[in-house]
Amino acid sequence: MRASRGLAAGLLGLFLAEGVAASAQSGMAQPRSASATIVYVNRQYGFRFTLPADCRGYSIVTDEWMGSAPANNERGPLLSIRDPRWTEEQPRQDIPIMIFTGAQWKLLQNGKLTVSAAPYDPGEIGRNRRYVFAIPPRYNFDEDPGYREVMEILKEHPLHAF
């Protein structure tokens, strides 16, 4: 029994190694190693966000989203992760994260809260017991330098709520 487990493990390892080698030769993207990433942790709202190593030196820009609902105007935090290469002369695409309470998100989902003129709502990227995290619609509309890099980062599902 142990010998067959060892053989199975060895074959699995060989298969995985062959797959990695084949994908490297075919030019397929390799998953980032843990050493090639950095992590922004936000304890106030309960999430962490994984960034590529070239974002070392990023900054967090705090702002506020505003929306309108029939009964009142709603507001909430908007945190943007700013590329360290961003300058006034050469702005780069931020990674904006809208933070909603559960009640605000429910209003939004039921069409009772509007936060943008876009024809669609923000895109949810995570949630915990208290908050829903979302990317604003049309966040990359201006196509600032780096917007494609941000899209690639977001494809990796970098936000992990806790």
How would the blueprint of this fold be written?
Elements lengths: L1 H25 L10 E6 L4 E6 L6 E10 L4 E10 L12 E7 H8 L13 E5 L3 E5 L11 H9 L3 E3 L1
Antiparallel strand pairs: 1-2, 2-8, 3-4, 4-5, 5-7, 6-7
Please provide a written account of the structure.
It is built from three helices and eight strands, in the order αβββββαββαβ. It is an alpha+beta fold and 162 residues long. A five-stranded antiparallel beta sheet has the order 3-4-5-7-6. β3 and β4 form a beta hairpin. The longest helix has 25 residues.
Summarize, please:
The chain contains 3 helices and 8 strands, in the order H-E-E-E-E-E-H-E-E-H-E. The protein has 162 residues and is α+β, with helices and mostly antiparallel strands.
Low-pLDDT parts are 1-32
H-E order: HEEEEEHEEHE
Oligomer: single chain
Helical/strand content category: alpha+beta
Dominant shape: globular
Mind summarizing the main beta sheet?
Answer: 5 strands, antiparallel
Give the number of helices: 3
Give the N-to-C terminal Cα separation: 41 Å
Mean pLDDT: 83
Looking at this protein, list some descriptive labels.
globular; three-stranded antiparallel beta sheet; 26% helix; 3 helices; 162 residues; alpha+beta
